[in-house]
Each structure stands twice: as structure tokens, then as C-alpha cells.
TrEMBL record:
Coiled coil: none annotated. Residues 13-63 form the HTH lysR-type domain. GO terms for molecular function: DNA binding; DNA-binding transcription factor activity. The keyword Cell inner membrane does not apply. The keyword Transcription regulation applies. Keywords: DNA-binding, Transcription, Transcription regulation. PANTHER family: HTH-TYPE TRANSCRIPTIONAL ACTIVATOR TTDR-RELATED, HTH-TYPE TRANSCRIPTIONAL REGULATOR. This is LysR family transcriptional regulator. InterPro entries: LysR-type_TF_proteobact-type (IPR058163), LysR_HTH_N (IPR000847), LysR_subst-bd (IPR005119), WH-like_DNA-bd_sf (IPR036388), WH_DNA-bd_sf (IPR036390). Belongs to the LysR transcriptional regulatory family.
Length: 299
């Protein structure tokens, strides 16, 4: 079977451009001239029959076809890198650069305070973190992603890290002014801080699970947010009632600056998953990170 080696070269240049952000920086990384990078990309576009980049003097952006091509070939490039590492006898070595796309609440409240342990354990590793709770293109430029919520159908490998309880809470000052809801239905008469579902763009429906089953409440409020840290800060300031992941709330609950309500209806749990490209065995750095995150999440 014949193989066009120029295709592999072009894909490598394509990946370098995506990593660097433009042709000039990619040329520096590859030891080529910018015009050489441009010609290699043009040959690749001619070979695959579609335009991969929209170009301007300062940056390049993926076309729709380019984004699909990127999603397909990056796991293959990572597989080649892994194969080369295994051939060199370094499959168990945790080093290099690990790119992680991670939920911002988990990053701030759980990972960041403990990240020193991970870096101390693997001194040859560099960690590149991007915070986002959106799933669209979450693996673009990432080796592993961490998101709350059930997994979508995709070619990615999804590893469940834990189930996180969901708590309904408010500041004591808010409850002193507006009263304490006795049932979930009482929330219809309260100011609720709503959180936007990153997948639908609409506020989440509030779910409560009690001894007699689950009920859903369409909570109402004047604040809709997509940053969990900002939403908790607004709740602490007495702006309304908020449903939050229990993980990360201990400090405020123990100090009394937040109070949980409707505790007999607090049976809801939300899963936390880690994702990586579909492969028989992910690189050692990915495995090490997943094991570390699962351990600290459980504690």
C-alpha cells in the first residue's frame, strides 16, 4: 500500500499552526519560513479539497471544514506521538506539556488548591489549564477535558470521576428578609439566582429529590449567570437563593455565611466526567492527571 508522506507532513504543519495561532509563530517552532508554512498548508488544502483556514495578516482561524478536519486528525497525531514515546521506551514517563480544558468551578475550588501536589510529583510535566463549562470543541487543543453533567454520545472516552450532591442555599440575611421556603414550590415566591445551561443556553430547571420521588421547579429570578463563582458570590451577598454543587462550599457552610435549605429535598446528584480522545491507552501524563483528579475529587 502506498502512502503519501507529504500528507503527513502537511498535517504536522497544520497542527503546528493551530498550536501557535498563526503562520509566523508556527514557522519559528518548525524551523521553517512563514512562506514555507503557507505553502505546506496550501498543499494540504489542495490535497484534501477544502479550505482549512481563513487568513488575515495577524491570525488564522479554522473554517467549518477545517474545524472538522482538526477534530479528526488531532487524536491521530497524539497517537503518533504516543507510539514514538513507546518505541523509545518512555510510555511510563510523565512529562512534556499536558493541556487540560476544565470546568471553572472545579478548577477554582478543588484543583487549584491541590495542583502543587501534582506538579511536585511530576517535575518534568508542564500543565496548561483552560477554564470553560462549554462542551463545544472542548477537546480543541486539549489532551483531556473535565465537565459536569452526563456525557454526550461521541467518540471520546468518558471516565466518571464522582457524583456531586446539589444543595439549595442562601445567605442568612436573605432568609431573614424573605423567610425560609418550607417546600420547593415556595421558591416560586422567592428571588432565585439562575444558572445558564452551557449546552442549551437556557437556565437549568431546578430538581428536588425527596422520599416520595423527584419534582422539577421552574425557578424564577432576575439574575441569570453562567459563572458559578459569580453566582455563589451573589448568593453570599444576599441577592437570592441558588442551587450549587456541594463541592467547594464547605468554608461558607461551616462559617454560617451560607445556609442550606430544603435539606429533606436534597437528594439530587450531578456527575463529573473526564474526557480524552478514543484510544486503547491514553498517554501516561493523561492517566496520571485523571488518577490525581479522581483522588482529590473524592476527598
Amino acid at each position: 500500500m502506498s502512502f503519501d508522506t507529504r500528507l503527513l507532513t502537511g498535517v504536522g504543519v497544520f497542527g503546528a499552526v493551530m498550536e501557535a495561532g498563526n503562520f509566523v509563530r508556527a514557522a519559528d517552532v518548525l524551523g521553517l519560513t512563514p512562506s514555507g508554512v503557507s505553502r505546506a498548508v496550501a498543499r494540504l488544502e489542495q490535497r484534501v479539497g477544502v479550505r482549512l483556514f481563513d487568513r488575515n495578516p495577524r491570525e488564522v482561524t479554522l473554517t467549518e471544514e477545517g474545524a472538522r478536519f482538526h477534530a479528526k486528525i488531532m487524536p491521530l497525531l497524539a497517537g503518533l506521538e504516543e507510539a514514538a514515546s513507546e518505541a523509545a521506551g518512555s510510555a511510563a514517563f510523565v512529562g512534556g506539556r499536558l493541556r487540560v480544558s476544565i470546568d471553572p468551578w472545579f478548577a477554582r475550588m478543588v484543583l487549584a488548591p491541590r495542583i502543587g501536589e501534582f506538579l511536585a510529583r511530576y517535575p518534568a510535566l508542564t500543565l496548561d489549564l483552560t477554564s470553560s463549562n462549554y462542551r463545544e470543541e472542548m477537546m480543541s487543543g486539549a489532551d483531556v477535558a473535565v465537565r459536569f453533567g452526563p456525557p454526550d454520545e461521541s467518540s471520546l472516552i468518558a471516565r466518571k470521576l464522582l457524583d456531586v450532591p446539589v444543595l439549595t442555599c442562601a445567605a442568612p440575611g436573605y432568609l431573614a428578609r424573605h423567610g425560609v421556603p418550607a417546600t420547593p414550590h415556595d421558591l416560586m415566591h422567592h428571588d432565585c439566582i439562575l444558572f445558564r445551561d452551557p449546552q442549551t443556553g437556557r437556565p437549568f430547571t431546578w430538581e428536588f429529590q425527596g422520599d416520595n420521588g423527584a419534582i422539577e421547579i421552574k425557578a424564577a429570578g432576575r439574575l441569570v449567570m453562567d459563572d458559578p463563582s459569580a453566582a455563589v458570590a451573589a448568593c453570599l451577598a444576599g441577592q437570592g437563593i441558588f442551587q450549587s454543587f456541594a463541592i467547594g462550599l464547605d468554608e461558607w457552610l461551616e462559617s454560617g455565611t451560607l445556609t442550606t435549605i430544603l435539606t429533606e429535598w436534597s437528594g439530587e446528584q450531578f456527575p463529573l466526567y473526564a474526557y480524552h480522545p478514543s484510544r486503547h491507552m491514553p498517554p501516561a501524563k493523561v492517566r496520571a492527571f485523571l488518577d490525581f483528579v479522581q483522588r482529590i475529587a473524592a476527598t
